[in-house]
Structures are given as structure tokens and as C-alpha cells.
Structures
1.
Amino acid sequence: MALLLFDLVLCALLLLLAGAAMLSRSLTQAVTLFIAFGVMMALAWARLKAPDLALAEAAIGAGLTGALCFTALVRYAKQPAYPQPALWRPLTFIGLVTALLLASLSQIPLQPSSAIPALVQQHLPQSGVSHPVTAVLLNFRAWDTLLELLVLLLALLGARQAPGDLPRYRGWSLSISWSRLLSPLLLLVSGYLLWRGAAAPGGAFQAGALLASGLVILRLNQQLSWLSWRHFWVRMLVLGGLLAFVLAGAVSLLLQDLGAVWLSWPQSIAGAVILIVESFATLAIAVTLTLLVVGEPKPEVADA
Amino acid sequence: MSVVALILLFSMLLGIWRVLKGPALLDRLLTIQLFGSTGVAILLVLSKVFALPALLDVALLLAILAAAAPAALVQRLRQQKQRSRQRTSL
Amino acid sequence: MTIMLMISWLLLALGLMFFLAGSIGLLRFPDSFSRLHAVTKADTLGLGLLVLGLSLQSSWREGLLMALIWLIVMASGAVSCQLLARFSDEQPSESATQQED
């Protein structure tokens, strides 16, 4: 009974926040509400007993997307006289998307087909990890993850074509020391999430997103000036995820007999390979996302 | 135990009214703080309700992000202000 | 065992009271700084009581993790309260003490 009410209130809150974020006139408020919406989505995934998705939603939906939106907001420097959009446009859009979603709803089976989870469970011992989601992401469907890393790299390269000229300002000493205090903790918890990924919800994307959010606040407080595209090692870190993945694929191809499949790890070293690939991927994701969010530092602007 | 989660969610709902209403920017920024602490509490309770210890990790992540967010956010907003001041002085 | 359970529920109820009190404060307090105070302080105490109540019903490892989470939330409440208040103090145009109309 209480759980049913909980669901109802959760749905109402989600709709309320989404509506308010879209219709709000102040962009700052819209972005804050959007972050709140991300947190609510994470709660919704938690309610649906999907901790993997809840982790990803909290790290990416609430954390990084919020940071991206705020960055966009800052570049949109003048406090905008944001024009109230004609209401029919968003409403038409919502109507169209809703119709599409409803149309696709009939295609989703009510009960997920039991064949695929059973297959995953059956082959889990060969994957080198004990958490089915990680097994799918980094072993059975490693191709998808490899291509996701490529997409991230392409996004960064695209964003670099439009260089930002965001000047840096010195933060308050409170926020500087707070970010210094927080960063070892962030590093620790990212490592924990990465390590847990083998046996429980967690993994490269969540750990990378968390690490990125730590790097972002450090950078905003004028630390870490080495973190720039100009440095060779930073570029190598960005490429590292992809390189480790491809190299692992090539090595596993050599180790196995003829007829082996690209990106399928030999069972004996699968766990180690996955951990190595994930570590590099975490670093690459963290650095890429940070560079995407904060852009290049511009040397020395006096504090106003 | 799920009653606890329900009451927490309800208290969040109460808070949202103020956030939507404003009037100052500070009131709106309070959303992050409110959602940080109450969201973490709900996750902790849910992990007990469903006996899913993994939700504790989600709560940990949310707590750290909520701790990092205000620092980043305030810096960003100050940059924005200084930038628009520069624009107007040019 | 039952006494532990009773204490745990008592703590949970107390924690909930603080959460509700924080939200009511957010609604009813007259100016932004009081509201900031309501959210960052009452909720933090509420979370502490909740964590205490929950850890009486769970293993020591979960209890430790929850205690860590509480420490983080407590520290972040204190710091972000300061940061937000300072920021709003800097803001000339949109005064924080502005009354609602």
C-alpha cells in the first residue's frame, strides 16, 4: 500500500519537475530543476530495483549533464531576457513524442523474454566476471562499448572545433580547500566503483563520470592546470581507453586458435583483461568528459 | 519500512513548492541541497526495503556528487556574472 | 532483539520528524537565509538519526558505509551552506532578503 502511494508520488514528482523545467522562464532555474529531475530518475530506477541504471543516472544524468548545462549557461553570458516560447510548439513536440512512444509501447513484450537472461547466466562463468551487466558490456557485447568510447572521442574532437574562451577566476579559499579535501575521496570512490563492477553494479562509465565530476570542480577552482589538450600525456589518456580495448582485442586474437572471434577474451585471462580495459576506459572517460565540460584553460586572467 | 520512504518523498514534495516559487536565486539553488540529502535518505531506506545493498553504493555516489555540485555551481555562476560585467563595461 | 528494533523505529521516526521540520521550514521561514538554514541543518540531523536507526537493523559493513555517507552529507551541508550564502550575499541585483509579494 505504502509502496503504491510511493510510486504515485514519485511519478507525480517526475512529471512536475519535467514540466517545470521545460516551462520555466529563468534558464538557471530550468537547469537546477533538470538536475533535480535527474536525481528523481535515479530514485525511480532504484525503486524499479535496477541499481546499475540508478548509478549511471545519478552519475551522468544528475552530475555531468547538469555540469554541461551550467557550462552552456555561463557561455550564454548575458542574463537572458529569455523569450517565452509560443506554447503550441513544445506542446506539438510533446504530443508527437508521446504518440511515438505510445506506438512503440505495443512492441515491448509485457514480460521480458526469458531466453536472453538465461543465456547470459549460462555463459557467465566463461566471462571472467560475476556481474551479468559487466559481462554483457565488456565481454559478450564488447563491440558496443568500444564504439561508445569512440563516440565520446568524436564528441570531444567535435567540441574542440569550437574553442571556448572561458576565462578563469580565482575561487574562494573555502571552495578551493573543499575541492582539495573532496578529490582524494572522489578518487577512492571511483576506484571502488570500478572494482565493484566485476561482482556488483558499478563499472567504467559510472566510475569515469564520478572522477570527471571531481576533476571538473578542481578545474573550476583553478587547480590542475596541466589538464589541457596541449599536453601529450593528456591526449594519450584520452586515447587510452580505445587503445587498450583494441590492443586487448588484438592480443586475444593472437593468443587464441584460428577461428577465434575479435574481442572475445580467452576464459583464463578474461577477468584481468576486463579490469585493465575498464581501468583505461575509466581514465579516458573521465578526462574526455572533463575536457568537454570545462574546455581549455586560458592562461592568467586577473581576478575582478 | 516503505512508509518511511513515502514520508521522505512527501517531505521532498513539500520542499519543491518553495523551489518553484523562489523568489530569490538562492531559494532555487536550494533544490540541489534538498535533493541531495533527502534523495540519499530515500536510497538508504529503499536499500533496506528491497534488501539490495547495491543501492547503498548509489547513495554514496549521490552524496559525493551533491557535495561536489554546490562548489562547482557557485564558481560557474560567479564566472557568468563576471563575464557579463565585462561585456557591459566594454 | 525486540528492544533494538523498537529503538531503531524510534530513531527512524525522529529522523523523519526532522526531515519534515526541514521541509516545513523551507516553506514557512520568512527569508532565504533562514530557509537555507532549515534545509542544511535539519535534514542533516534527520539523515543522521535515520542512518543510526537503519544501521541497528543491518550488518556492520552496511552500517559503516551509511556512516560514511552521513559524514559526507554533513560536511557538504556545512560547506555548501556557506558557499551559497556567500554567493547570494555577493549578488547585488537579486537580494536574498527580498520578501515575496
2.
Amino acid sequence: MKNPEIAILAVLVAVLVAGWAVIQVDIYGGTSVKVTAGDDGTDVRIDGLLPSDYHYSIYSGADVSSELYYWYDESVECRSTHQMQSDFFDSMDALLKVRNHEAGKRADTQALVEMMERTIADGTVSKAAVYFCGDVLPKAIMEDGLLDQWIRAGGTVHWTGNAMGAYVTSEAGIENWNPAAFFPEGTVADGSADLAHNHTYWSQRLMPTLSQCTNGLNVTALNENGIRAVSLGLINDDGFSSYAVCDYGSGRIYVLGMYTSAVFPAYYQMVSADVIASGIDTDTVESFSGDGKKGYWGTDVSIDYSPSAGDVLYLRLGSPFVNWATTHAF
Amino acid sequence: MLTASSLSSFLKCPIVMVILIGLVIRLVVAPLITFSNDVAFWMFIAGTEEGGTGLYETTSYHYTPPWGYVVAVGASVCSLLGITDLGTFADELLPYTGGEYVVLDAVPSIAFSFMLKVPLIVVDLLVALLIHRFVSGRTGDERKAVAASAMWFLSPLVIVESSMHAMFDNIAVLAIIVCFLLLLDRRYVLAGAAFSLSVLVKFFPVFLTFLLIALVLKREGVDSHGAACVGRALAGAIAAFVLIELPSLLAGDFWQSLHFIISRLGFTAEEVGGIITVPVVAAILLVVIAAVAAVWYMERSRGTLSRIVSEAGTEGFHRRVRRGLVMVFAVAMIAILAYSFVSVGGNTAYEVFSSFGMRFVTVMSVLSLLIEFYLAYRLLFLGDSSEKRVATVVMLSVAAIFLWPPAPQYVLLIVPFVAVYAAMHMPALSRPLLMFSAAFAVYDIMMSNASALFSLAEYTGWISMDSLIPVVEFMCSYIGPIPMVGVVMAVFGIISYISMLYIPYTWYRAREVLHEES
């Protein structure tokens, strides 16, 4: 060959263009899932271009919030940087997108207060959820008990960071508040890395790593205190969970036991996105599940289970990280 | 027609033997050993890409776009071949995650890892063939050509990076070699494009900018013709840069896509994005245009540039250049120290020192750039134009890029240039190159440690994960307050760094001997 270097350059360019095209083409987003339920069970058909491993679960008692808000307020100081929070929420949106879930809406403190007051007034609290990842709560919803009232009325909070309520922020800056504002003393991990190690563990399918116990809830202690709490992730010998949900009045609080500044947060956010998209909570029971491998151009999956009204089918494609997922409510 | 005797003589051809041996080693090693942690990240990226998530939509991908595109192609090929199991979770590893020694419980499958390694092995092969062709064409000596290729293709470091670590630095190496070859062929636009591609794969070839400009001017003349040729290369580089970065530019992820490059300088993408705004870029462009116009005017009216060029080779000018470079380094040090002071608010000397330490790479990068500039200046204006001298400057320029202790995969860039130089001009460098390759390969294996066998343990019955746990525990242990992984890194990093410095040292000693002999 006279000019192999030109040929090599051309091949490199071709590979880059092909890679760019693969990313642009929404291979799994174009996948359609048809779910039909008869008397004797459920049939699912997965159509799409490329084969993939899949996992399905049928949940009873799952409850998907239709409106997700991200508290993001650049006018007040937070314990994690605004850039980290912004990246965190961008990442959450991308992960929710491939799970066929609406992106979250960013709300500053003022918008958050308005949303909470509005949903309490019109009785739509249970449809809304708020995600906090600044490791601090806005003082405006704490000092008059608005957040407490809102959750008790049926609202959902997703939290990551130190003990929820330990710090609040306003234009005056960050203040210490009450680490036991939402959970009794001793039921929230103190950030010690030791909690993550030298323990045996129990795992289940939605699993952020055990190291996220550093800020996790102690579900055992909460249950002993009469507060219903369920581990969604891993749990160590002392009862601390890497990802837990607990009841709070008519509402619930999810705690992902990590800091926003954790290395590679998307790894843990995927689980959070699965929880939000599937709607699993303290009431949820996985009544049926299975694995399989999707072939080219479509696969029929027969589920020998009769779902009840209100059950949810959550289907995920990809191994082990989710390429695409969808929720189907019966 | 292929006969047994022609096949036999083909197989006895030395370069074919080198390639066969290199390929057999790679194809045996690649399925068995995988540096799990990095490949687990590629697995994550593959999963999100296939789901239609862009490279920078999640906080998972920190490199420039090209490798992300290669992973996307690799993952799609996996799917087309029916390889759908990209990896799994290993519960046994959970207690060790989140510590000083990075352990992920996500373990890539052997098939997925292998599929990502295949293109990297092909890149290794292409580099070997280009080296062989170049040395053979220049010297007409097949033995030298085979020796140079072997020093690359059978290098332990090269084998480890492509076939175990699945790191993509060899793509940057391939692109920069293509750039040099196109430059020699006077295809400056394409050379510029290859340069941009190389830099956007793994940043470090950017240090060769001065050298490449000097090579063009040396060849074309330090005059308007030479400047036009540099301009063509620059146009190619800018065009390729814009094209590769276009998706990131359109998606508003431009600075994020340059995270790896910016972080080398001790800054975050957000800091740089906050400083380099559109008005600032416009102002810089205006300054550059004004400076070019001023130089052009001064040259036309007073012949200033021609006078500088004619004086550039004199001893007095040379002295001024050296003095100027020392001054620049001193000013850069002060500026970086001042920035460190300001950025931490100047609370305590310890905080300032820590902040300055964080910018150690920046300081050493400035030093590298000044050395690169000096070498390019010497090439252009001082000494003869022999091929050996040019090759010496190229070899030294590449060796001077990594003045700070680098990660093993980064120094892959040094291997082909030293290999060619050793084969063509200084065989005494062969042994230091082998030591360097071996030292960095061992360094990388030690850092990966037990994780290199996680895939094998998860996907075969040949070794159990339980048998690897004691090694993981050892790496996660502490000697007093010092993490064991830090000790391992220090010991093997220092040995590797010394082996890297031994290359220019050997060159210097061999050069002295040559001087004495002549």
C-alpha cells in the first residue's frame, strides 16, 4: 500500500463516526414493549434492534410519583457544590430518560415552597416527590415545619448526604439544625467509613454497594422504634442500609447513604433511577420475577402469573447496568 | 498459488515471527487477565450509550469523546454477535468497595472485555507495521526494522495495556505516528488532523506541538512558505478538533468533554468554563490577529522577523533564549503559587502548600513545555540537519513529556519513538527501553493486583473469588496510617520512574562515548 497512514487515518475517522452514530441512534429507546394480560397470565413482547439480557419483576403496591422535583438553588450555599448538584440531576435525568420516566423539574427554594403549599391545598401531595442532594435542606421549609407537614400529607422525599435535617441553609448561610428532625437519634449512620466494612451483608437485586452505608438509615433500629423501614440495597450486621425507604406519616423518605461527591455517582444513581421509575416503596412486594435473553428483532416473554389491578411490571434490558427499562401498570 | 514452501518461508520471515509471537501472547492473555476496574467503567458506558444516553449526560465518562465512540462500536459489535452479558456483580467484593484501594463489585464479562481488547490489539499491530515500514524504508536494513517493531510489539508494557488493561493510549500513539509520517510526506492538513485526533484521544502528544512546527519549518524554510505550511497543518488540526468535538459543542458539554485534559492542569471543567467565555475567546482571537498583523507589518517595514531568524543561530541569541525560558519558568511558578494562595484564601501555609502540591503536575507540565520549546528551537536554529540529529530531538522530546511520575499507560507514547531511535541510531538504548517497559508493566500489574483475575473467577471455575480475597484484603490494609496501596504505588512507581529517566541518561552517556571516540 502506497499511503497506509492515510488509510489508517480514514479507518480511525470511520470508527469515530460509527461510534457517534451508535450513540445517536436510540437503539433501546426505540424498543417497544407490548404487554397483554389474559386470565391465565401475562404476555410481554419486546421489540428492538439488538439482543440483550432482560429482567422483569411484577410488583404489588408500587407507587410511581408522577411529578419529580429537584431542589436546586444557586442563591444559597450548600454543603455539596452547585456544580455537583447540577451534574447529579443532569445524570438522574439521563438515567430516568432510558427508564421511560419523565425528567425532574428544578425548583429553587421559592418554587419548592409554592409547590408544597399548592399540593397540600389541592390534595395532590402524593403525586409529587422532591430530590435533595445538596447535603442540606432549605431553611424556609424547615423553620415553619412545611416539609414535615408536606411529607406527612403524602409527599415523597429522596435524600442523599448526612442525616436529613442536620443542616439547613438560607441566604444567611448554612446552619446546624437538628440531626434527629426526621429520624430518631442513632438510626442514621454518622458518615463513618467503618460501617461499610468488616460486616457480612445481605443483597438483593437493586444494589448500590455496601460502602454507601456511610450515611444510610438503620432499618432495624427504625423498625424497633415502630417506624416502618425497608432496605432497598444492602444491609450490614448493625442494620444500616445502603439504600432505604421509610414511612413518614402518609408519605415516605428514601435515603441513599452516599455523599453527592462520591466517586462515580452514576453507579449509585442508576439504582435511584430504578427505584423512582418502578415506584417501589415500603408497601411493595415483588410477587413475580424472571430473567431471559432477548433475541434479534423481538422476543415473546410469557409470564405465568395473573397480575392484579394496580400491579406494576418493571422490565429492564442490559447486564448488569441498565440499557433501557420501562414500567407498565396493570 | 500458496504452497507449503512459500508458506514456510513466509512464516520464517522475521517480522512475521515477531507478529505471530506478539499476537499469540495477546490472544492467550486477553481472555484470561482483565484489569477489572477500568473495564467495568467501559461496561457502564456501553450500557448507557446503548440506551441512547450521550457520553456526558451521566457523571460517568471523563475522557474526551473518541474512546467513548470506540466503546460504543465495540458494544454494538458485541450485541450483533449475540454477546449480551457485559458483566455481573460480585457480592464477595462488596465489603472492600469505597476504600483507598479502588475495588468495584462490578466485574466485566470475559467476552465483553475481549471484544474491547481486539481493536486495541489491532492498533498495536498497525503501529508495529508502521514502525517496520518506516525503519525499513529509511535504512533498507530488515534487521533494524524487525528490531524496532519487536521492541514495540513484544514490549511487556504494550502487551499489558492493550491485552490486560484495555487502555486506549495506543490509539493516541498510532495517531501521532500517522501524524509524523504524513508530515514527512508533506501532507500537512492531514498531519494536523491526525495530531488533533491523537491529542483528543489522550492529551499528552500536545507537548509535541513545538517539535512538529519546528519539523515543518526545518523542511520548508523559516519564511512565508514555511509559515503557510504550518498554517495548513494548523487548519487541519482545528478542523479535526471542531469535528470531533462538534457533538459535545452542540450538546453544551464542551468543557466537560475536556475534563481529562483540564484536570491535568489542576483545574476543573467548571473553573475553565467560567473563565473562558465567548467574550474572552473573542478577545484572545483579536489579540492573536493583532499580534500576527503587527509581526507582518514589522517584517514588511523593518525586516524584524528576518533579522531575528538570521540571529537565532548565534551564541548570543541562544543565551538569551535560555535565559528567557528560565524567566518564563520562574514567572509560571510564581503565578501558580499565587493562584494556589488565592484559591485557598491564604489561610495557612499548609493549605497553600497542599494546593500547590495539587498543581505539581501543572508545574512539571510547564517545565516540560519549556524543554519541548528549547529542543524545537535547537532543532530549528542550531546544529546540522542530519537525520540522526532530527531523530535525536524527536526521541528526547517524547521522553521529556512525562516529568512527573506518570501512570503506566501514559508512557506508552515513549516506546515507539525510543524503539525506532534505538534500532536506527543507538542500539545501546534497547536494554533501557526493555527495562522501562518491564518496570511500568509490573507497576501496572501490581496496581491492578487481584482485580486482574476477577473476571476469570466470576466467569470460569479455574480460580475462585475466595482465593483472591486475601490479596484484596492485603491491598486494602494499612501500615499504621498509610494505606498499603499507597506503599505499593510508591515502591513500583519510583522504580518505574527511575527506569524512565534511565533512557535519556543512557543516551547522554552513549553520546559522550561517541564524542570521545570521534
